[in-house]
């Protein structure tokens, strides 16, 4: 069962819509503010009812529409404990399960490193990895409570131990790619395949990436689910 | 079961990759020339083996990579009879079935109107409608053997008679939308909902659209599956 993958061309962010044919319940992961109407229209066209809106972390490169989507639809918001997203209905912890339709569970996997609170979500044979594991890469670890050491542990002990057939759906891609598998990333990922912890930490330390343009705006906004503090 | 939907930003074309978790067989519908490497990489990352590459029609707005993908992977090409795509391995007719994996069948539905040969493909609860039925619209009918009369018949008697839950995956969208359902289109489609044949023909006649920029290049190229005539 594949999710529907939606793309924001401004921030190269993927939003995911999870649903099962013949059932109305749907989950959205990592929605983007400027696409809230598109996402509501998707739900309408597919005859779906939104049950949960989940964040993988407090994003630094775009603003979420989670708060707005939940206000309009009545869905519950969920975000990782420790990401500072105080208003989320569910403060999620490693090992939590979210039942969004009969027999349909999302498993919450704490995968810190890009941020201290970052979560991945496992649904059937799909894992939504946020900015932890990307296709042939990984999220940066040089700001917002990032830790290369923690990210190495998360990827090698929590994500690479999933079934090799598990599809990897990241929060971003900048090269037109859309999906990978755990098996492919274990053997090919440019930053992790055949790379020990010491090498990985050194590699991440030497990336010297520029500060994200929206960091000072996006993080505080996302800590309030994208809602204005007046709302 | 959703297909993987890939997008070409130049021509706003959707390419679809169909596969079933745990099986290796895959089908690609309407691939775009400049993305042939991306599409091969997708197959590699997912551990998939391409069995068929199908065209919904001879496109006028982009060039296909069907020939190239088939040469490299050994997959069979399939195209509608009557679209002038002579080199295709399978010349498809209304009612044909393509078995691409055990128990997995694509049903070929002749839906003329955008072009005389245009086909739609039904797989499980998904229909790939090419340029016949679009989200909240339909393909143009003013060139390349188009016929508004034929398109009205195709959509109202062949597509709108599918189950209302059937997901509609078009060949294009120009407004960031990705998928719809037969039920939604029957009741909301701006050109077809509540519109009789006479009104529809008059509406399509009065669109006065500009000639597609690539028409004279793309159609001959696509009639040869995107392969150079020297190849």
UniProtKB/TrEMBL annotation, chains A, B:
Keywords: Hydrolase, Metal-binding. Gene3D superfamilies: Ribonuclease Z/Hydroxyacylglutathione hydrolase-like. The keyword Hydrolase applies. GO terms for biological process: glutathione metabolic process; hydrogen sulfide metabolic process. InterPro entries: Metallo-B-lactamas (IPR001279), Mito_Persulfide_Diox (IPR051682), POD-like_MBL-fold (IPR044528), RibonucZ/Hydroxyglut_hydro (IPR036866). The keyword Transferase does not apply. GO terms for molecular function: hydrolase activity; metal ion binding; sulfur dioxygenase activity. It holds the Pfam family Lactamase_B. Residues 12-172 form the Metallo-beta-lactamase domain. This is Glyoxylase-like metal-dependent hydrolase (Beta-lactamase superfamily II).
């Amino acid at each position: 069962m594949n999710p529907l993958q939606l793309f924001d061309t401004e921030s190269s962010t993927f939003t995911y819509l999870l649903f099962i044919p013949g059932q109305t319940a749907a989950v959205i992961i990592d929605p983007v503010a400027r696409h809230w109407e598109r996402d509501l229209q998707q739900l309408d066209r597919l005859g779906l009812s939104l049950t949960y809106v989940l964040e993988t972390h407090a994003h630094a490169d775009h603003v979420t529409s989670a708060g707005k989507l939940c206000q309009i639809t009545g869905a519950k918001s969920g975000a990782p404990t420790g990401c500072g997203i105080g208003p989320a209905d569910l403060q999620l912890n490693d090992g939590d399960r979210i039942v969004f339709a009969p027999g349909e569970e999302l498993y919450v996997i704490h995968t810190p490193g890009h941020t201290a609170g970052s979560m991945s979500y496992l649904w059937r044979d799909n894992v939504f990895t946020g900015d932890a594991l990307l296709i042939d890469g990984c999220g940066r670890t040089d700001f917002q409570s990032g830790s290369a050491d923690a990210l190495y542990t998360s990827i090698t002990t929590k994500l690479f131990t999933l079934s090799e057939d598990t599809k990897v759906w990241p929060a971003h891609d900048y090269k037109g790619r859309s999906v990978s598998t755990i098996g492919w990333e274990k053997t090919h990922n440019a930053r992790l395949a055949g790379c020990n912890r010491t090498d990985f930490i050194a590699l991440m330390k030497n990336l010297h990436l520029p500060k994200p343009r929206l960091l000072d705006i996006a993080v505080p906004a996302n800590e309030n689910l994208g809602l204005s503090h007046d709302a």
